[in-house]
Amino acid sequence: EKQRLYRQRKELLEAKEAVGSVYSLADEAYRAYDKAEGWSTVDTFFGGGLLSDMAKYSNIDDADEAVRRMNGAAHRLEKELKDVNLAFDGYIDTIDSSSRFFDIAFDNIFSDWSIRDRIGGNLEQLEGYMNRLASLEDRLNAELKSIDSKLKKLT
C-alpha cells in the first residue's frame, strides 16, 4: 500500500509540475497579447501607422511563440494527467499570417478592428484557460494532501 501511495504521489507531483509549466507559458502569452492589444488600440483609434503595426506584431509574434510552446507543454500535461486518471484538454489558436497581411496591406479601421478583436478573443481564451489550470492545480494539491495524510497514518 505504501509503495502504491508513493508512486501515486510522484505522479501527482509530475502532473503539478506540468501544470506549472503550461500556466507559466500561458501567462507569458497573455502578457504579450495584452501589450499587442495596447498597440492595436493606438493603431485603431489614433492612426498609429507602420510604427504601431510593427510594435503590435512584434508582441503578437512573442505571444504566438509562447502559445505554440504552451500547446506543446499542454500535450505533455495531458500525458502526465493520464497517469493520475485526470483529463485536461484545450489549445489556443495563434493569429494567422493572412490576418496580418490583410491588416498591414489595407491598414484601415476595419482591418485594425478585426485584429484588435482577435487579440481580445485570445486574451479571453487565455484567461479562461489559466483559470482552468489553477482549478486543476487545486485539485492536484487536494489529492497530494490526501495521499500525504494516508502515508502519515501508515508510518
Low-confidence stretches: none
| Separation of the first and last Cα atoms | 12 Å
Task: Specify the overall morphology.
Answer: rod-shaped
Assign a percent range to the helix content. Answer: over 70%
What does the main sheet amount to?
none
Oligomeric category? single chain
What is the number of helices?
4
Structural class: mainly alpha
| Overall average pLDDT | 86
SSE series:
HHHH
Sum this structure up briefly.
By secondary structure, this protein is mainly α.
Features:
mainly alpha; 155 residues
Strand and helix map with partners:
Elements: H1 2-46, H2 49-82, H3 97-106, H4 109-154
Helix pairs in contact: 1-2, 1-4, 3-4
Kindly describe this structure.
- This protein has 155 residues and is mainly alpha-helical.
- Helix content is 87%, strand content 0%.
- It is built from four helices and no strands.
- α1 packs antiparallel against α2 and α1 runs antiparallel to α4.
- The termini are close together.
- The model has no long low-confidence stretch (mean pLDDT 86).
